[in-house]
């Protein structure tokens, strides 16, 4: 099939493939990889940079048979499945994922490939739930990796560089309920005076600000609870408990978000901020995000507050989350308990890019690691240097894909170093 006009979710990237294909079974997928010199797999296209692009063959796995096999403590799922489509059958069968991102619309394979994350002092990025991975590599070999495989920690966050992932096995736990509360208008100085107190106040905590003024417009607390727990105090950290539902993005309707005000619900209807059946976030936006070591959170805050008046004019909202350290070579939380500073920008790349660079300069002394799926302008050599196992990952990718079929312009900039 010649390529239709394909764009990412945000519309800022026009993909440039010669061919766009939707194989119907594994044999077709293997044959496509065999005859292609350049090839990439597209997930749900929610990344804000050209990480999924190729000038060769772009593969969608949407037409492969979809399967969910729920087992005790584990679930195997077709890699192109969206979190939102897995969540319901999983919950009905009595199981849950430990965490999800802010929206359920993204594919499991695409999210894990870029180390997508939610929030929580004890919650790793979503890829830390991966227990097994099956796919077809650049040599057309069908591979199956489990946590016992030596290359597993290198392969899980793979940026699409190893091959086409067709099935992912995820660790699950017995299903649980969550309620969320929002605090409004707490000064950021109070929040960062004792960040541990704020981020340990619930299972998953998100702090939203526009930087100018330096106020947490909203702090979202997601608690794992059964019924009967008392309500939280009316005032905390200088903010007040909200008495109506909110959308974290200024001007967007609260109905697009999951229920708040302490209403208890299943994990998959509370852990994401946005509901599956509506447009998540602002819809018209760009995003960037930087992980800094947790120990540097206050310094990062001061650096960003200092340039708050530069950030605010091109910003819709910033979100501050915590991510537990992990062992996955290309995870931005590799060996670092992290605080992630996220920016939802206006949809004007020309105006946003200089400010993105300014944010990067402000955070530079703190060794920030940018989110792989979002907009960043950092020198690829600097990004690569922030990952102690990057050279090992390059060697791994060369074993899985010796001809570099799964490379693209985005990856080559990092691999070239
Ligand atoms: C509104 C919005 C909200 C977001 N919220 C969050 C958030 O809360 N937390 C967060 O961390 N990120 C967030 N993101 C970023 C998003 O999670 C990542 O960009 C993620 O990679 C998107 O998944 P996708 O399926 O759309 O991947 P794509 O953008 O389609 O692809 C990403 C990468 O994965 C590869 N890939 C995809 N599928 C496969 C496969 N089957 N086999 C091999 N390679 C594959 C692609 O080649 C590419 O390299 C958000 C994005 C948007 C648009």
From TrEMBL:
Residue span of region Disordered: 231-256
Pfam families from the xrefs? Answer: ALO, FAD_binding_4
Origin superkingdom: Bacteria
Q: Where does the record place the FAD-binding PCMH-type domain?
A: 13-175
Tell me a Gene Ontology molecular-function term this record carries. FAD binding
GO cellular component term, pick one: membrane
User: Is Oxidoreductase one of the keywords?
Assistant: yes
Q: Does the keyword Oxidoreductase apply?
A: yes
Which UniProt keywords are given for this protein, alphabetically ordered? Oxidoreductase
Q: Which InterPro entries match?
A: ALO_C, FAD-bd_PCMH, FAD-bd_PCMH-like_sf, FAD-bd_PCMH_sub1, FAD-bd_PCMH_sub2, FAD_lactone_oxidase-like, Oxid_FAD_bind_N, Vanillyl_alc_oxidase_C-sub2
- The protein's name in its UniProt record: FAD linked oxidase domain protein
What are the leading ranks of the lineage? Answer: Bacteria, Bacillati, Actinomycetota, Actinomycetes, Acidothermales
